[in-house]
Amino acid sequence: MWSGDPLRRRRHPGRRPRAPGSGAEPAPGAGRGRPAGLRGLLQLGANAGPAGGPLPGACDGGQLTVGLRLALTVNNAQDIVVWRQALVRALPGAGFEAAVVAPPGPAVGAVAELGCPVLTYPLDRRGLNPVGELRSLTGLYAIYRRWRPVIAHHFTIKPNLYGTLAARLAGVPVVVATVTGLGYIWTDDGPKARVLRAVLGPVYRR
Q: What pLDDT is attached to residue 134?
């Protein structure tokens, strides 16, 4: 379950309710609580998991406080322990409140021991099932909407693709996609690699 305090949406006490008829009418078909378009689809998916309950999510490693929030999004928490440990340790001293966004796994506890909270989302690293991929996208969107990072920094293919889209739709101000090495999609010429190059090329160029 989501931890209550760190992921609670921020209220805007100075915002006054809009008087009836004073603003734009909702788009046809956009009922209450069901925004239209891709953002609306992601919002609905973020509110319900495979069995109609909440998406798998966790906040491990202590409470989060409001600050300059930075999300480090990976496809395996082990990558943080092996390759990004120095970065995670340096971020608080640089004025950042960091959280690692990763699928559940045995390395989540090791990341939490570094003093960095972990927010989990569903991901099959090698899967191509459309339903599973949509769950990954909506899981990331839900985290970004609730935790409100200022920067979302993504590593590896699926976080770069789904995380970038989810962060843009969630209104994250700064979105970073990091590529470590070429990877097989740039060295292989098979059908799967060609499709991934076509999809990821525009993301990396931005």
A: 95
Apex CA 42: angle with CA 40 and CA 47, to 5°?
Answer: 100
- Cβ atoms of 132 and 124 within 8 Å: the answer is yes
Contact indicator for 160, 154 with CB cutoff of 8 Å: yes
The pLDDT value recorded for residue 67 is 62
Quote the CA–CA distance of 145 and 159 in Å, as a whole number.
16
Cβ proximity of 169 and 35 under 8 Å: no
Pairing of strands 118-120, 59-60: antiparallel
Sheet containing 118-120: give its strands across: 59-60, 118-120, 96-102, 68-73, 151-155, 174-178
59 vs 202: CA distance, rounded Å:
32
Residue 179: the pLDDT is 77
Of the two residues 36 and 171, the one the predictor is more confident about is: 171
Q: Which residue has the higher pLDDT, 64 or 126?
A: 126
Domains of the chain by residue range? 57-181
Candidate CATH numbers 3.40.50.2000, 3.40.50.720, 3.40.50.1240, 3.30.559.30; the one for domain 57-181: 3.40.50.2000
Tens digit of pLDDT for each residue in 115-131? 999 999 999 988 788 99
